[in-house]
Amino acid sequence: MIKGGSITLRRATADDARFIAENVLRALHIDEADEGHIEHLADICRREDTLYSWCNATVALYDGVPAGLMVAYDGARYRMMRDVTFPMIRMYVGDDYQSMDDEACAGEFYLDSLAVLEEYRCKGIASALIQEMLRLKNKAGIPLATIAVDPGNDTAYRLYTGNGFHHDGQVTVFNTTYDRLVFP
């Protein structure tokens, strides 16, 4: 068990691509990905024009050890990045993404993925990443922060509402309806 410790955050680099890929899969609840899929997603994370790009990622360190990850970006770029990313990950998203709701749009800073390694949970890492996302939103001058949350995920719901997010409708992504949470 890990006790005490300090949390530091840093912007990701292209060298973090594999860590980003593993944690995006974790955030999507894909626990059984083979090595080829992880490496393929890592290649996507090394690019600068994808949803899961290192350019959109923040790494959380706990006592200097990578412990969590956040992918968040300006929603005005969502459609362009989606149209680059989703064709490259058809094995996970299929081909019907063109007809789904947009997860984000202009005027929103979107928290796409957030994951904390199991052994580092309940230490404030997720909240620190959310606060960093809000700082990045403010720095970019974007008025609204958004996230899509599975309505059955009580832990995530408590995390986001505990950090000031509130319910603002629903969004359907990959044939699944999520609650849309916004800040402020």
Describe this entry's structure for a reader.
The chain is α+β, with helices and mostly antiparallel strands and 184 residues long. It has a single domain, classed as Aminopeptidase (3-Layer(aba) Sandwich). Helix content is 33%, strand content 28%. The protein has 6 helices and 7 strands. The protein has a 7-stranded mixed sheet, with helices on both faces. Helix 1 (17-27) crosses helix 2 (35-46). The longest helix is centred in the C-terminal third of the chain and has 16 residues, at 125-140. It is globular and about 45 Å long.
How would you sum up this structure in a few lines?
By secondary structure, the chain is of the alpha+beta class. It has six helices and seven strands; from the N terminus they run E-H-H-E-E-H-H-E-H-E-H-E-E.
SSE topology:
Blueprint: E1 7-11, H1 17-27, H2 35-46, E2 57-62, E3 65-74, H3 78-85, H4 90-93, E4 108-116, H5 125-140, E5 144-149, H6 154-162, E6 166-173, E7 176-183
Parallel strand pairs: 4-5
Antiparallel strand pairs: 1-2, 2-3, 3-4, 5-7, 6-7
